[in-house]
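User: My advisor, Dr. K., asked me to get a structural model of this assembly before our group meeting. I'm new to this, so sorry if the format is off. These are the inputs:
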Amino acid sequence: MLLAQLSDPHITAPGTQLYNRVDTGRHLREAVAALLALDTCPDVVVLTGDLVDRGSASEYSHLRDLLRPITDAGIPLYAIPGNHDHREAMQAAFADQPWMPRAPDFIQYVVEDFPVRLILLDTWVAKKPYGELCDARLAWLERALAAGQGKPTIVMLHHPPFRTFIEGMDAMGLKAPERLAAIVQRHPEIERVLCGHLHRPIQTRFAGTLAQTAPSTAHQLTLSLAPGAEERYIIEPPGFLLHRWSAATGVVTHTVTVGSYSGPYPFGDA
Ligand SMILES: [Fe+2]
Ligand SMILES: [Fe+2]
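Assistant: The format is fine. Below is the predicted structure of the whole assembly, which you can bring to the meeting.
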């Protein structure tokens, strides 16, 4: 099973650029093209939040247009909200998708169609940059995990439940991550906890499994580990994650860089 994780595309209305500088639509178009050009076609694509930048209907419509080559290629596609999304607008934009829960519920659901179950969580809090899993969402997660009866599982949510040492982002991470950790700890079948939000690939051990964030398909967050560092973005090469699972190996993750680079070349003198 090959899972492609695209994150934080921050799509704006057609003809506009994010911060008057970043053409996030072009970046997503290039990421989708790179994904479809892989020598091994992903079985499934998941977008881990901040799908659009301001949560408007025109942004979501633009997003759906940009994602169409994936579904046209027959690859199933799922999404969860990030802090830049708007839950009701996202529900409306994906209302034709059978996986989309109906308003006013949370946008969290289980994908059972693959050897690894995907449990997709909604950490969205209205008008807040941080994320939260309230009592209702955590209780739902407990039930979803119990229903899997130990089958290999990947849990996905926008806000990472761990400290990254990028201070500005840690202040807007997942609130009370220990509550999620207590549940994950009881389920060794969880192969990964996969997140977005950071616009950088970062990994750590978490509650007996591995938690990691994905790069953005557009702009990246400046790497600043100094306390009090100003939070800024940078046009480093964008990318996405590819998670390859087999029963013998578990999940093996590759970071894919999107862009045009010299090569490939055979080894040996030119
Ligand atoms: Fe983001
Ligand atoms: Fe975010």
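One thing worth pointing out at the meeting: The longest strand covers residues 239-246.

User: Perfect, thanks a lot.
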